[in-house]
Amino acid sequence: MNEQTLINGYESLALIMGQMLHSAKQQHWDQLTDLEVFYLDKLQQLKQLEAAIHLSAPTKARKLSIIHRILADDREVKDLSNPWMNKLSCMMQGASVEARLSRSYGM
Questions:
Q1: Would you call 52 helix, strand, or coil by DSSP?
Q2: The whole model's pTM is what?
Q3: What's the start-to-end Cα distance of the chain, in Å?
Q4: By C-alpha distance, which of 85, 13, 93 is closest to 45?
Q5: Contact assessment for residue 69 and residue 13, using Cβ atoms and an 8 Å cutoff
Q6: Within the chain, how many helices (H) and strands (E) appear?
Q7: 59-99 confidence digits (pLDDT tens)
Q8: Kind and range of the H or E element at 3?
Q9: Cα 26 to Cα 32: distance, rounded to the nearest angstrom
Q10: Buried b / exposed e across 13-43, counting CB within 10 Å, b at 16+?
């Protein structure tokens, strides 16, 4: 693997994160989840490949720039998805309480 291949990998991660952000903005939660799984898989592969390469200063700077973009998009995804996650959590807790009451009182 060379430096350009590594940068291309990080650019690919940035594109996937951009798709995740778009999905979150559109409230396409299932698509967001699928993209997240894909993103994490690609990230793991990239980390393993990166261990074998020494980066020049310009490549490190480019990598850092891409990572900053990824982190900014990730923050926005979290800001958009947290209300949905909280709502989902409340619904699940409500269902759990309802199930316990049903078991307890034979409803």
A1: coil
A2: 0.76
A3: 63
A4: 13
A5: no
A6: 3, 0
A7: 999 999 999 999 999 999 999 988 766 666 666 666 565 66
A8: helix 3-25
A9: 10
A10: bbebbebbbebbeeeeeeebeebbeebeeeb
